[in-house]
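for the writeup, i need someone to sanity check this before i put it in the appendix. the sequnce is what the collaborator sent (i think, or maybe the updated version? ugh). structure was predicted straight from it, no edits. if anything looks off just tell me and ill rerun, i have time this weekend
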Amino acid sequence: MLQDACDLLAALAGDAGFETFEETDDGLNGYVQQNCFDRQLLNDTLSEFPMDDVQITYNICEADDEDWNAEWEAEGFEPIVVGNIVVHDGRHLPDTVTKTAIEIDAKMAFGTGNHETTRMMLAALSENCKEKSVLDCGTGTGILAIAALKQGATKAMGYDIDEWSVDNARHNAVINRVDDRFTSLLGDASVLDKTDETFDLVMANINRNILLNDLPRFVKKMHQGSILLLSGFYQADIPLLTEKAEELQLRLTGKQTDGEWACLQFTLPC
């Protein structure tokens, strides 16, 4: 019963802005950006929790500014193969030279190819990035922008609200020798209002609520024929995101699923 309650709580808490969760012996640790947290909505959600025999209490505390990946970084990770791409760190080199190799040095940033959503985005990129200009929304380690550049994209711009991620993405662009074609900006989707540039490919691997909020800004950075790749959400969220995208004149042209996670491809018709 505890597992069912935790799964349901994670799904519902997403509406209040929570992005990621960590299971504990007693329940869940949830992580939310302060400016995205809707406490009243969380309280309303918990008061109407659909499992009558479950009581939920919570505490709020500010997370320390520390390197959450420290132990993981000390061990590194084994190479991850996605189609013709292999993602590796500096300690574990790939055993093949026939694939597009991407070295990632993750420092307090999301994106190594280990998560289902990142793998699906990488798979979708292999068919959509050649000779294209790319916008990477919520760039994290920069893995998606770097993958696009190493597979033939002409240039890429990424942004992230986390300063650690912005710096880490720039660092990873340097070690992958694509920094001359990559720009990493600090901020949320509002940074897009500062440029009139449009992109052939826009991609965002972010949680559902941020996607729903930022979709109009994404579309403004697209032109006729541009492709939009979205992930970071559950299969259950597909109808909601598809409806919002169609309201913005986007057409669904592709879908992937991996476990409970999903990845959607949209096109802005000519």
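The radius of gyration is 19 Å. The chain has two domains: 2-47, 107-267.
thx in advance!!
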